[in-house]
Amino acid sequence: MATAAAAPGRARRGAPMYSKELTSKKRDEFEDILEERRLSSDLRYAMKCYTPVIYKGLSPCKPNAIKSAVLQSEQVQYVIKQLAKEMGESPDIIQEEATEILDEMGHRMQLGAVRFFAFTLSKIFKQLFQRVCVNEEGMQRLQHAIQEHPVVLLPSHRSYVDFLMLSYLLYTYDLALPVIAAGIDFLGMKIVGELLRRAGAFFMRRSFGGNRLYWAVFAEYVKTMLRSGYAPIEFFLEGTRSRTAKTLTPKFGLLSIVMEPFFKREVFDTYLVPISISYERILEESLYAYELLGVPKPKESTSGLLKARRILSDNFGTIHIYVGQPVSLRTLASGRISRCPYNLVPRHLPQKPSEDIQEFVSDVAYKMELLQIENMVLSPWVLVAALLLQNLPAMEFELLLEKTLWLKGLTRTFGGFIEWPDNLCAKKAVLSGLTLHSNIAQLVDGHVVLNDKGVEDGATGEIVFKRALAILMCATYRNQLLNVFVRPSLVALALQMTPSFRKEEVYSCFSFLRDVFSDEFIFFPGISLKDFEEGCFLLTKCDAIQTSQQEIYPTDKGSVTVSFLSAMFRPFVEGYQLIFRYLSKETKEAFTEKQFIPGVRNFVFQLLEKGVTQCYEALSSDMQKNALAALVQLGAVKKKKMSNGFTYNVNQEAVSKILDMFDARIPVQKPVAARL
Amino acid sequence: MAAAAGEAAGGGGGSPSSARRRLRIISGHLRGAPRAPGRGALSPSPCKAQGGSAGPASGSIPKKRQELLKWNGWGYNDSKFIFNKKGQAEFTGKRYRLGGMILPTFKEWIEKTFGASLEHKTTSRASLNVNDVPPSFVNEEFLQDLIATKISYSQDAEDRVFRAHGHCLHEIFVLREGMFKRIPDIVVWPVCHEDVVKIVELACKHNLCIIPFGGGTSVSSALECPEEEKRTIISLDTSQMNRILWIDEKNLTACVEAGIVGQDLEKQLAESGFCTGHEPDSMEFSSLGGWVATRASGMKKNIYGNIEDLVIHIKMVTPRGIVEKNCQVPRMSTGPDIHHFIMGSEGTLGVVTEVTIKIRPVPEYQKYGSVVFPNFERGVACLREVAKQRCAPASIRLVDNAQFQFGHALKPQVASIFTSFLDGLKKFYITKFKGFDPNILCVATLLFEGDREKVLQHEKQVYDIATKFGGLAAGEDNGQRGYMLTFVIAYLRDLGLDYYVIGESFETSVPWDRVLDLCRNVKERIVRECKEKGVQFAPLSTCRVTQTYDAGACVYFYFAFNYRGISDPIHVYEQIEKFLLNLASKVLSTSSEAPMLLRRAAREEILANGGSLSHHHGVGKLRKRWMKESISDVGLGMLRSVKEYVDPNNIFGNKNLL
After folding, report:
1. Which one of A109, A422, B263, B616 counts the least CB within 10 Å of its CB?
2. Which residue among B513, B525, B608 places its CB closest to the CB of A347?
3. Which Gene Ontology molecular-function terms are recorded (chain A) (predicted)?
4. What is the ipTM of this complex?
């Protein structure tokens, strides 16, 4: 093999796997599944005859049979023997350990528990939500997929409701219930943990990188279920619930596990099904905001859950679930994977995936997330939130209506999936959004104002905190728009930051911004130029810019759009500037993550108190972590793994340089792509 | 060169004195073609029969091949499947056990499996259109030189066309419907080693291209002439070099001219009480030289070994001179074995003229057998165990359910009510009493050979293992029919072609732990590719595990589909026809071009599943594209450098392999 070095900006083999359909595509119609629940008996529904559609090659087996198959598998036995040899222990002891791991991990799916959930969830969902809308065609496609090949369900993750809802949905449509990879913390909840286990959840520890036995048992457990087509496997690419409603960058571990049986040709194919679940109002919205501001997340506990039952009286609007087109892994992999490495080693030996494979897994992960984003339903309220955040503290209602309609058009131009019934007038749409989200914003004297009660009295600190809380909650909704808007907006930002209109310079700036924000938004790796072209195309489509051979410049009537788009991302630019400033000047050269977050939070908090900045979003720990990760990627910060977590070393000079580029004090110096 | 296509032909009985009978049946087609007197006598004197072109043909294959063999299909002119006036399937001729028998359920099986209808028939043209045949260009000086050697030759159009191809689907398709772009300009028939030396010398002198031709059974496009070859192409037909030169009973070896075909070799050795035991499926037609040139494998390799185990000494004429070893010994440590440059060289280095091969006394006793397994997985597990215990009989094969059903469809009309009653009883026992699902079960066929007592002992051992894997003994008759099946299958393709059903076979070798995955995935890939290409009726996609080794197995696949049952019949029909013809011409034009897409997809699938490029068919031009991946850059370079030294002017320019 020639040395196809993975240079920065990775040159990828073959055609890029991801290319977005830019013409607005036809999407499926939605059906409300709660409608029927409101008309007929939940008990009868829970006790209905459930004969799910299953994989054609399935030989039925009990959860315990899977466990013993895993334990006896060559893969696990090999690792057990290796460890026994290395540690000088008897294999029996390690085998015992493996059994314990399996018992902790394994699900015990039982129809009884499923029926219990079917009943209670019917009650709860009807109470909480107005409608649960599903694209039925997607369900039909899923039904075919499940019969044909092993299926992996990849839903977006915004709430604990996600996996409950998805299982509920599959039960409703008589499909095989999935087994779900859940965090081990659920086991901390008495009864509930066990209930979830019986409903098909299996539990993984949050980090087990170093534990070879755990890894082997876990991987084999998942693969055994996949190979045998026991049940669809469900997990969250994002790894955890996104607290900001922005899609999180994907985790690769589980994805590479479920892809391996195909790489080794133990299965003919595997379907990956992106599923987009969007909430008009997220159940955990205020919890998230607190958490982002550093008020710790309450540990999962049953009593906590019981306390939370008061939210049952609240209204959380509509849920939209869009089951995407199943993607054949075989098709994705065709021509990309060299088969040699898997042919020359016995298949049961643990093998570190080659660079090619790692790159492929990462590409697939990003592709799946981008597909999730493409099909994520946006409610009118999302538009309102975006507008409101640019017009704080208050916005005239009529203007808001006008702007909302304008933004709706723009969003659709950019390919956003807005669920806005044809006959619904703007006023009704906005008002219903305001009613649902009265905790965030209210209509007062013909103005829509942010609901930051208690601002008048109390210490400045408290005022800042309350304000930040309201803004972060509001931002959660605006954020749903960002991944749809990010490419044209970064072009708009680059246009404003670049002194000239020369295309190359705008592109360098765009490319720089894309790199800086690579943890903040979802970009398919290695296609910076394509993203730029997409951004330019969309801006041209809405008449905001004009391009010539060499130049890009905003049109006269496009300046509104361009400044709106850049303002939309302004909080991120400013937030990153603050965080970079902190890192370049205010901190020691070496620190841990635990020191970093409070440090930067205090720094920003003080600036807010002094009124030097208005960038409340910089208080978000999510943004702070992403900014740090970006610097690590840009090479300005070194990340080192220590026994007690990660330690960071700042190259303050490098950070100031990046900061200068960000402030547009010095031009972005990046090698320009050969051809634009 | 002839490829040894697949495994052995079958037929014969299971009774103690059956060895002779079996041989008689295998060579039964010789009836009415008495051997020239005196040819049986063994003579070490070289080139006795030098007498110019008129020398009487002594082997089974005459110079005018078409007088005996189909010019546009497989096998003998008189043997083929037909639908008789009553619409029943029937196999004609008297050469095979199936000859003259009615196959009552076969028609239904075809209709059910392919959705084909007997009303839609397409027939090949009746004879070759001589006007289409590319003209022969032969340099006058060379011709004078050739005539001076008194070696028989021909520039006849038919002779040349019938040596321009092997038996790939696209080649047969071209014969039926089109014409090859490039064919040999002249055919020569050397009768001994010295003749070959003279021909190669002349070719070097005049810078001509030689393509050796043995039995013509290649399934790797190895015999197709490279279209861009501007020199005169000489087809060197070895069929008249077919004598056994001597038999050495003390060392159990025989020295044989390379043009002899399998059936003649076995028949003539049997007269002295010996056999080689090398029985590829094509043994009626493929030649010893072809086996050497393609690294052939025989059905009974478990007892006798594959060709590389059988060969003791090879004499090959190359443009550099003659290559051979100085002694005839079982093994030697003299650097890399030069035989391994020759075996599998596919006619790119020279012509194999004489081979000393191991022989064995004809076995005392032969017995067929069969075992039914509840499913394919259990069957494979059993074969693996048999291989592990190293107790594989002469042949052990496992056919999947589809092939089992196919075998069933080829069951001749039963002679008596009693047999049919017995059959019913057996079926009832297996499906109802033992609970085997007739749509899942699969069958292993066995062939034991050796001393009577040992065979019986061996048989018991194998059946005991089979029982552990849920296998049920299913009788000798089923086993025997199984072996017959692999052998008539080649005739079936011609019938299929008449009814818009096209089929092809291919093989691979694979480690034991991947056998099941490979079989499932390759079959599924075929089904899927057909679907994507718009083939409406699901194809027949079937496999059998056909050889077992310590470390793995050889798997043989068949696929066939009805290309008429397509949504837009006329359009797609034309499309596929065009597609096949295009493909054929492409293969002919640039040898590295893709052959049939489907087979290519299947091969890709095999390689991705850890299977080999070929177990015994060879590479030819059909599979060249994967050679680099198969043996690495350096490996390919090693082979190239051998070619460069041995044949710097590319006299042996068939462009195979490299």
Report:
1. A422
2. B513
3. glycerol-3-phosphate O-acyltransferase activity; glycerone-phosphate O-acyltransferase activity
4. 0.84
